[in-house]
Every structure is written in C-alpha cells, then in structure tokens.
Amino acid sequence: MSNSFKIAVSSTALSALKSRIESATFPDELDDAGWAYGVPLADMKRLVARWRDGFDWRQEEQKLNNELPQFTRDIEVDGFGSLNVHYVYKKSDRGTGIPLLFVHGWPGSFLESRKIIPLLTKGSGDSQCPVFDVVAISLPGFGFSEAPKKKGFSLSQYVEVSHKLMIALGYTEYVTQGGDLGSRVTAGIARRYGGMHSKAWHTNVLFSMPPENDDPSSYTASEKEGLARWQEFQRSGSGYFQLHSTKPQTLGYSLADSPVGLLAWIYEKLVSWSDNYPWTDDEVLTWVSIYWFSRAGPAASIRFYYEVAHSGQALGTKSSPPTIPMGCSLFPKELIRIPKSWYPGVGDVVFEAEHDKGGHFAAHEQPELLVGDLRKMFGKGGPVYGVVTGRDGYN
Amino acid sequence: MSSPKPYKLDVSSDFLSWVTDRVNTARIIPDITHPAGEEWEYGIPTAAMEPLVEYWKSNFDWRKMEKQINETFNMYTIDLEEAGEVISLHFVHHRSDRPNAIPLIFAHGWPGNFTEVKHLLKLTAPEDSDAQPFHIVAPSIPGFTLSSSPSKPGFGLSKIANVYHKLMLKLGYETYMGQGGDWGSFILRSVALQHPSSLVGLHINFPVTLPPKPLANPTTLFWLAIRYFSPEESKRLKRMQWFLKNESGYSQIQRTKPQTISYALQDSPIGMLAWIREKIHLATEEDYVWDTDIVLTWTMLYLISGSAGSARIYKEAISEFPKRPAHITVKPPG
C-alpha cells in the first residue's frame, strides 16, 4: 500500500543545521590554488554565506512538493526484510504512458528527475510524441528511503527493490533510464528481469571491458579522448570512489556532522562532472540539502560503493551483457566514453545519439536532449516502439 | 636572522568553546550490524566512536593536556625561510648535558605529531653512563599541527627537508642523526640526499622503495619473478597489498583533493577524530590499546592548526616522487 509523501523537514533539524552553518570553520588555502586541490575557498564561503542567509529551504521544499508527487511504500527485499521506499510517481497527462523507471546516482537523487518528468509526461504537443508514466525511485539509503540495516545490500538488492516497485505499481512490463549508479542498477535490472519485465533500457553512461582482439589503433579521435578523460578521472578524480568503496563509515562521520564538509564533497563533483552547467547557489544547496536531510543521513548512501566493491560486482567484473534492446545518449563531458568496438560487452545497442553539450548529470543539464532521445527511441518509427504491451505512449 | 622563541601551548578560549560546542552537538551516524570480528570493515564503527565522543564530552580535559604537554616538552618556534616562504616552525628541543651527546632529529608523519618523541626524551640522560646520549629535536611538519603552513603550491618534501636542516644548523648542529616514520622517513631521506655530510645516520621505520632493476639486481628480480619469498617477506607483501587495496583511500583523496576533504575535517571535530582514529587502529599491532586522552589530544592538535596542510602534503609530495629512487650513501660517524 502506498502512502502519499510530502517532504517536511522538522524545525528542530532546520535550526540544528543553521547553528552548524553559523559556526562553520574553514581551513586555509594556498595562493592561486584554483581547483587544483579541490573546491576553492571562495566558492565555499560564498555558498555557506548563502546557506546562512538567503537560501530558503522551506520554499524549496514547497516547490518540490508541488512539482513532484511523492509516495512511500514498504517493499520486501530477500534477506533484508521490509524497507520503506520513497519515490516520485507521475502518470502521463494523456493516453497510455510508457512506464519508465528512472534511477538516479550519486551525488544525485530523485531530484534529477525534476526537469524530465514534465517533458516525459506532457509530451511536446506533437501527436507523434510519445508520453510516459514516470517512476523515480530514491534508492535505499538515499533521499527519503530507508537504508538497509545490515551488510551485503548490493547491486542485486538495488535491482530487486527497483523492480518490485514497478510491479507493485502495476507495471509488469516497463522500461528504464539511468546514469551514474543508476546505470549499474538499470543494467542489472535488464540482466535479471530483461525480456519478461524490463523490455528495453536507456543509459547515458556506458561501461564495459574491451573485447578480446581489441584494436586500439581503430579508435576514433573522440573515442581516444573519451578514454583519456577516463584515465585522468581515475588518476585525479576518483579518490572519493576509493574512500566510498573502502571506508564509508569513517568518511560518513564528517559528512553527517559538518554541512560544510558535505557541501564541499558534493559540490566538487557537481562542478567537475558537468559541462559548464551554470549551477545557481540555491540549486547546489537544494541538492546538498536532500543529502543532509535524508532519512538515513548522508553517510548511508556511500555504502553503496563499498557493497558493490565487495560483492564481486565491481566495475570491470566480467558478466554477460543484457540481451534486451538498449539505447544510449552520449554527452561530451561524461566521465567515460568507451569505443564502439566495446559495445557488445554493454548490451544490444539499437539506439544511439551523440550530443555536443552536456555532462554527467544529463537529465538535469540537458533535459530536452535526453527526453528527445527517449522520445525517438520509444516513439513511433523508433527502434523499440511498442515494446511495452498495451502501453505505447499514445492514445 | 631569527632565533628560537619559547612556546607554550595555550589555545584561545573561543577555539576551545567552538570544539566543545561541536562535540556536544555532534551527530554520530548509525551503523549497520556487523558480524563478530568484522566491526571495522567499513571504517571505524559507531560502537567505537560513541565511547570516544562520550569521553570527549564528559571527561576530556584539554587544559590539563595542554599543561602536561607544556611540562613534558621544551617547545619553541622559529621563523625559517625556504623557497621564498617564511615558515613559523614549531619544535621540541631537549639538550643533553653530557659532553658526547649526538643531535637526533625525530621526524613525525601523519596522523602523528611531535608528542611521539616523548619516549626518546630520556635519551638525553641514559641511566647507563656508557650508553650514547642524544640532544633531541622534534619539529612539527609545516602545515601540520603547530607549525605554520606554506602559502604557495609546490612546498614538497625537499623543501620541508631544507627547513629541517636549517633548523638543525640554527641550533648549532652541523652533523646529526635522524629517526622517522611515515612522512618523517621520506623527509629525512630527502635531507640525506640534499645534505649528505650533515645527516650522518638515519633510522627509519617506513622503508619504501621500488622493485629491483633487472640489469642492476638480476638475482633479486629472479626471486621476485618466481615469487620466492621467505615467510616473513610473504607476510609483509601481503600486508602491503592489503593496505593498498583496502586502507589507502585516505591517501588517494588527500593526494588528489586535499582541500575538499579538509572542509569536512576542519569543521567537524568528530570527523577529524574518526579520520585519525581509524588509521592508527590499523597501523599498530592488533593488541595495542590506544589511550583515549592521547587519541583526543592528537585530534585536537590537528584541529588547532586550521590548515589543510596535513592533507596537502600528499599532493605536494607525490608529484615530487622520482621515477626511480636515488641511491643514498650515508657516511658513518667517527
């Protein structure tokens, strides 16, 4: 049974946050450090000043509640008991919407569905444009979903709980979209529930290992550049990943105790992973607030990395690709871009679109482009039109 | 030219109230349940943090710790110039009154500090009159705890080494010996490389190097290739691999984004406590019991600095590491 949900942070929590922000202490910084050592001090001071005076959480909360219809329901996960899961759920404005499960990543949240939901559910006014019923889950440990209480809640479990949510909503067949961790979850859904339930999947992050007999000399210039960007990311931008994957609890104490610390940890990625997206301070603070006020606290979400790293499901582990049709949207500032020759390891790519702008947070940075791709992929004339029985996105 | 100024640790009451207030309102995260024996798998468990924080709130007396430090250690600061920067270097200095005393510089690392030299102070006056006495010097790394931080990028190990060497010269010690672990060992190795006629003896407990070169050390490489290790070597290699795989996230983040992590650590006393406490748990023998007053004092020393310098050293130093280490020849004394 689902319960309607409205975000309603207590005034105690708000004032506790306020007093922490007011007593915030900053480290020093080297002269002309820029972004070379991490988030610049000037950015932090500006954001914290706004957080202290000006940023209005109650207003943001109200906007979110008005825009996004939210619910919670209990879902049983094998071996973990019942977890109360938070999600956004909006049906199409007209016709029979294609059921689409959107899965967020880190440091994102259900918020990442905010801009694409109206486009997906309303359509474009063009009768050729399909519409969707959208479900945006908050993964356990994120947003307002409960966190698992014991170890071992890994990809398989995230996959299971996401699938069960769609079934609980009456969608025995559905399609998925995911980036960042959401890409891994939706790939897992495609693998385990593909065919009978998940009918097609779309992602903006492709990852697989190179095939045997791979020939690097055949890579295009942009493929080489994409691989170089991945190498640089591993060299200088993946410290968070190492820490999340090994000591999430240790890091968690400071993220949960210092809003400034949490802000820096998240803001660094919002800026470095996006394509010059003009983040407003309030936008950043809203994203960070979701973590600060999350039901399980900011530390719970990062356990995702630890569990995956220790469950034999780490990135790069060999596994057979899903067989259901797959679509991908390539954005230039995504963290990784694999050569086309590696695609067979990812899945059965029937739709591919490449863009000249956009980064890791595709749904937030370029909602029109992403939705445009989904419309092409799933709409009339598209490679997977009508893939969900009886729900083709039209009347 | 500057000379050493006596130093007494005496933090401002504003700072102390800030720490007290933050500790009292600390948000300790919940934990998942852990199978017995696996409590530390995800980092320092809540079950270990809670008693530490409780002690911090109710029993920890910083002013008493300050008094003990001031009574135990003769401390000074001195302004030393290096590469266009002036560092206010904090150090401990205990002179021996025996005529044949040798100067010894003790170099701490992370997350250590000058207080680790406590067990060496008795070397100024060994009970056995035939035993070698030492003058003891223990600086705080620039950017750590009580020494000021450099203000420009690029202040790596070789510059820190020069600062240490200048300190010894200022104290009248033209030749000296050294003892160091963690960063201390790297700094002293750099002193030995740059000032070989001054650092005449070096004891390090953190030797790090690269595998042998095939042409220079063919036999050693052969044993390595066929993975023939003595049981002791095997044990050490396994530990090294385990450390790299499971325990070096802190190093990876500090050598790539030291500023980012420092916002969290400097603004959260319990965050800093967790960061430090976890690492010292695993860097010692299993049955070693850390005294809570010591753990909290170490944490305070890092908070007092207010600097991201202790994280930045990783980035500055790693970019300076040579592809192959130089061969150090150390001239024996006498």
Automatic annotation (TrEMBL), chain B:
Keywords: Aromatic hydrocarbons catabolism, Hydrolase. One of its GO terms (molecular function) is epoxide hydrolase activity. It comes from the Eukaryota. SUPFAM superfamilies: alpha/beta-Hydrolases (SSF53474). InterPro entries: AB_hydrolase_fold, Epox_hydrolase-like, Epoxide_hydro_N, Epoxide_hydrolase. GO terms for biological process: epoxide metabolic process. Residues 4-117 form the Epoxide hydrolase N-terminal domain. Belongs to the peptidase S33 family. PANTHER family: EPOXIDE HYDROLASE, EPOXIDE HYDROLASE 1-RELATED. This is Alpha beta-hydrolase. It comes from Lentinula edodes (Shiitake mushroom).
